[in-house]
Structure formats: C-alpha cells, structure tokens
C-alpha cells in the first residue's frame, strides 16, 4: 500500500525583488525531509503530475519543483504527466519512485485526474505519493472543493463535492494562515463560506509547513492544524 503525504505546500522557492521565483532547498520543517527520505524506496524517477494545462505557469511550477528537489533531494530523472504526455500516463506512473501531485485550481486538476483515470493508474505503482495544496485535497475519496476564484461562490452550478483519488476520508484546507482576512465575491472566506459548509463536512485546516502522513491505514499530522466542524474552529 502506498504511503501518501499531504502537504499544504513545500517551500520550493523564494521571490527576488522583481518577483521572479528562485528555487531553493525546501528544508525540513516539522521533519518533512526526514519523512520523505524515510518513506522513499529509490531516488530514480520523479514524476510531477500537473493539472492538465500546458501553459507557461504549469511549466514554471514544474521546473521550479524539479530544481528544488535537485537541491534538496535529487533524482536521476524528472518527468511531467500533463496533457502533452498523458498518452504515456500508465508507463510514467508505473516507473515513478515519487509522484508529486501539484497545486493549482482544484476543479481543473480534479477533471484532469479523472480524465486520465489516475485513481486506477496509481494502483499499479509502489511510489511514494506527495500532494501539494490542491493535489493533497484531491487525494480524498469525496473531495470538498470550496470556491477559490472570483465568481465561483455565486455560481449556482459550482460543484463543491468531487470524485477524488480515495486515499483518505479527510478533507483538508491548505494555506489556512492566509484565510483570516481573505474576501471572495464580497464574502469573508471563513465566516461566510467555510464555516457554513462545515455543518456538512468536517475540514482539517493546515498551515504551510504542516503535513499529514497516511500509512498502513493510519493518519498522523505533523505541525499546526485546526478542526473546522459544525460552525466552529478548534
């Protein structure tokens, strides 16, 4: 059974004065690097699973991720699973030693995962699976998908529950430290969107640097986290 690590994000880069992203060592906050080394069987093939869009932003994210791992935890080869390579998805997944499910727009990535039938493909790998942000959220069986871009919270057709990869029943909300004063469509994100939804869905909110390890049917959280349930935050 695969070990799965759900992160809010890995600290993959910093920004220079012009806003350019400079990859750096992602560090060992809450023991994340030690955990990766412990759970990783081989350092041969790294697979970056994108969100399906072959745009400049995706390729920059891929390149920065690869460079950060090259500095911190190097692999022999790096590959991307995206629209441009999805015809080789089965082979890429099967040969991977670490599969990184990237962040991005959650519904867009979820659609790509389902289009390539990633859930079934992952049954044929012994790779360590690491999620970042949306990639972590999509690891749930039924994915809680809160609105995140302008217009989504007012769209009556926006789907808040999606079919996920099925590694966990836990629904996470990453980057929790950023949401205290976040406003979307004129609504306070926590008070007007997340808390009302928590009457239906229990949410584990995690700060950047916090991660969850799923192994042998058990889950353990490393770092600061909050339980959002029945309209309260603990």
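^ structure tokens above, recovered residues below v
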């Amino acid at each position: 059974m695969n070990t799965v690590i759900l992160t809010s994000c890995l600290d993959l880069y910093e920004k220079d004065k012009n806003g350019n992203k400079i990859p750096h060592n992602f560090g060992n906050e809450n023991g994340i690097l030690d955990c990766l080394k412990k759970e990783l069987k081989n350092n041969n093939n790294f697979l970056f699973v994108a969100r399906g869009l072959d745009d400049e932003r995706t390729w920059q994210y891929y390149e920065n991720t690869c460079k950060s791992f090259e500095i911190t935890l190097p692999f022999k080869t790096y590959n991307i699973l995206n629209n441009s390579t999805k015809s080789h998805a089965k082979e890429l997944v099967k040969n991977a030693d670490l599969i990184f499910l990237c962040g991005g727009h959650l519904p867009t990535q979820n659609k790509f995962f389902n289009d390539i039938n990633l859930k079934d493909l992952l049954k044929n790998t012994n790779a360590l699976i690491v999620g970042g942000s949306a990639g972590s959220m999509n690891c749930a069986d039924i994915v809680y998908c809160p609105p995140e871009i302008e217009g989504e919270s007012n769209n009556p057709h926006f789907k808040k529950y999606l079919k996920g990869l099925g590694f966990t029943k836990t629904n996470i909300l990453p980057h929790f430290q950023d949401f205290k004063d976040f406003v979307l469509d004129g609504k306070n994100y926590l008070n007007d969107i997340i808390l009302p939804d928590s009457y239906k869905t229990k949410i584990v909110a995690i700060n950047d640097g916090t991660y969850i390890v799923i192994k042998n049917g058990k889950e353990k959280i490393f770092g600061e986290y909050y339980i959002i349930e029945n309209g309260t935050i603990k």
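Helices lie at 32-39, 56-72, 89-95, 106-115, 118-121, 134-137, 189-197.
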